[in-house]
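Reopening this ticket.

The earlier resolution said the output was attached, but the attachment link was broken on my side. Pasting everything inline this time so it's all in one place.
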Amino acid sequence: MLAHFRSPSPAALRGPVLTDSPGLPRYWSAVWASFIPADGASSTLKKKLRQLERFYQHSEELLGLGGLDDALADLDVDALSSAPEVSGPPVAGP
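Inline output:
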């Protein structure tokens, strides 16, 4: 779920963040978001995080709660390669 932290300090903890169903931040999306330039538009970050959240939700159906973060942390190639295979409609080729 896309949440918005409005903590008074530190400034690095303010802004949009993805959380799982219990409300804990999704680890690897937080790491990824930390590399986004600070002068970028908040709406752009929210758009990207919403797309990433859809992938997280799909991955949870296949891998369980926290499965995508666990697979990324463990470099579980089998789990990571199976998740996107059925994540959306097929893309037409050239």
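Reporter confirms the inline version is readable. The chain has four helices and two strands. The mean pLDDT is 76.
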